[in-house]
Amino acid sequence: MEVSKKNRYIIAFSALLVVLLLLFAFLRDRSHLIDARTAQNLIENSLVEDAKIDGAYLYFRSGTERYRVPKDAIDLKELYKTTAVAVKEPNPYLADLITIGFLALLVIYLLRWARKNRELKEQQLNEQIQFASELQRPSDIKPMVSNITFKDVAGINDVKEELEEIIDFLRHPGKYLNFGIRMPRGVLLVGPPGVGKTLIAKAVAGEAGVPFFYQSGASFVQIYVGMGAKRVRELFKRAKAAAPAIVFIDEIDAVGKARGGMRNDEREATLNQLLTEMDGFEDSSGVIVIAATNKIEMLDDALLRPGRFDRRVYVSLPNKEERKSILKIYLANKPYHLDLDEIAQMTVGFSGAALSSLVNEAAIHALKSGKKVIEGEDFLAVKDKVLLGKRKILTYSEEEKRIQSAYQAAKAVTAYWLDVDFDKIGLLGDNFQRSEKEIVSKTDMMNRIKVYLAGDAMMHLHFNEHYTNAANDLKEARLIARDMVEHYSMVDRFGAAAAEEEKILMEAKSDVESFVARAEEGIMRLADEIIRRETVSREDVKELLNEIF
Ligand code: ADP
Predict the structure, then answer these.
(1) Cα distance between residue 352 and residue 191, in whole Å
(2) DSSP letter (8 states) at residue 397
(3) Higher-scoring residue by pLDDT: 110, 427
(4) Which of 15, 442, 538, 549 is deepest in the core (most CB within 10 A)?
(5) d(CA 108, CA 313)
(6) CA 288 / ligand 1 centre spacing (Å)
């Protein structure tokens, strides 16, 4: 903004100069001075036209050239005989007046320009002072120095790989800017609680050696109106002052929950401020925002648009191998005698955070029992205690594993078949990604419903039973159907919402039932694979299906 103001001044000033130069060129005397003899010759040969006396000179044209000659040096009478001569009353002041006028204008203009410039500078200085004092003011928005690196984060190698480029950018921003490469402004880490999203963000800061600003989404949405937006502004000011830097916003859903439904002006103002700040980044600002959420579906679409959180990284619960390496990290400084494979096996569904407290509890248990080393029985003894503290995390019985793996496999195969994007699917959880498309077709939405109904259809087909594990998926399917009817009116008949939803769901159900019946063999093969490896990727599903069909 300041730059463009300055530019305007420069343009106006140059325009003025050009006008002056043109005037000067136009008014300039372009005649050649010649001596009296030549002039006299021309006069006598009647080669003189447009003669004019102006001041002390006689001006005339001869051919295409203009000449002047001191009027007292020639015989004017001779001239009068051959041609008419205009006499211009000399006005010695006119030229001076014009010059003075222009100079005056120029001076006034320059003075005004200087004043404006000074005002602008003062304003900038004031802003800087205000900003500096704001930064000086005690505040809980402070950068942290992170000494955590990727060595402290076990497993999740694919996540690390995805973040490598961002770390390199933070380390050598110049390299990327020279090539005009635009770096993502926001990275969204999506995954259940305790899988290490905060840890990962800290590790990115630690690896890159840049300051780390931590804020939880909830801390923005405060009691006083307007505080949230103000806090966001302050956060970004401080981050830019410390750039290159990382801003980490934990539980961004507190701010970025999809709008609509119950209005909440405060949250909306905060969200808008966040969007404004992210849009206002210059590519060279060197600030990267990392945010964490466990429910991407809940987020406002505005946050996911290009230039905002356009990079998403899915972090899932650790699989067996990953659990083993997390256990190793937390056991590293403790004496133990354990079969780590066995511990990893029995901790299905444990997040990194749960594993860390499990190791701690086991160590306490061993100590209390007067042992020198931690043993398997210490883990067994405290496992349920740790589990009880964690909602939703459960270890399945063998029977439950069979059910759940078939359920998840049916979803995976259907999703693969119908082109519903997902990254990985496991015993616990899936991450069907939201469509990246701006315009989603009715077919796309139907396909998503079918995926959510596939598990239940498989249960009915294979076990002739329905189970409670379908609850969430059935809810998702219903929500999509409702959206299709209420939001997008993808209906045959208006006005009968409930009946139209029912129709959509029934149609999807019958389609997916016949699909899983045809794909049963493949689904069960995949289910075995899921039991064995806990999670499978889209690629694995593809390979397996290619083998069968
Ligand atoms: P989230 O932000 O996803 O809720 P956190 O990053 O807060 O999870 O993780 C909580 C704690 O769990 C971490 O501080 C760390 O001790 C442990 N933890 C989680 N995942 C891992 C992991 N992959 N490797 C090592 N420790 C982990």
Answers:
(1) 12
(2) P
(3) 110
(4) 538
(5) 60
(6) 21
Closest CA to 205 of 153, 256, 154: 153
Q: Which fold has domain 150-314?
A: Rossmann fold (3.40.50)
Condensed to tens digits (0 to 9), the pLDDT of residues 276-290 reads: 888 877 666 788 899
The pLDDT value given to residue 393? 40
Q: What residues are in contact with ligand 1 under a 6 Å CB criterion? A: 153-156, 191, 193-199, 292, 326, 329, 352-353, 356
**Confidence band for 409, pLDDT divided at 50, 70 and 90:** very high
φ and ψ at residue 418, rounded to 5 degrees = -100, 10
Residue nearest (by alpha carbon) to ligand 1 atom 6: 196
Task: Give the pair of three-digit tokens for residue 62.
Answer: 């001869």
Contact between 181 and 284 (Cβ < 8 Å): no
Q: Where are the domains of the chain?
A: 150-314, 325-387, 398-548
| Residue of minimum CA distance from atom 5 in ligand 1 | 196
Residue 145 DSSP code? -
Residues 513-538 have pLDDT tens digits of 999 999 999 999 999 998 888 788 88
From residue 135, give the alpha-carbon distance in Å to each of 221, 289, 388: 21, 20, 44
Chain mean position to CA 448: 26
Q: Which residues pair with 32 in a beta bridge?
A: 67
- What mean pLDDT do residues 64-75 have? 84
Whether domain 325-387 has CATH 1.10.8.60: yes
Nearest ligand 1 atom to alpha carbon 193 = 4
Which residue's CA is the closest to the ligand 1 atom numbered 9? 196
Quote helix, strand, coil % in the chain, to nearest 5: 60, 15, 25
* Helix, strand, or coil (residue 351): coil
- For the record, the structure tokens of 346 come out as 């029995």
Per mean pLDDT, which of 93-97, 158-162, 202-206 is the most reliable? Answer: 202-206
CATH superfamily of 398-548: Peptidase M41 (1.20.58.760)
**Average pLDDT estimate for 345-355:** 86
Burial per residue of 428-444, b for 16 or more beta-carbon CB atoms within 10 angstroms, e otherwise: bbbbbebeeeeeeeeeb
Two tokens, residue 451: 């995926």
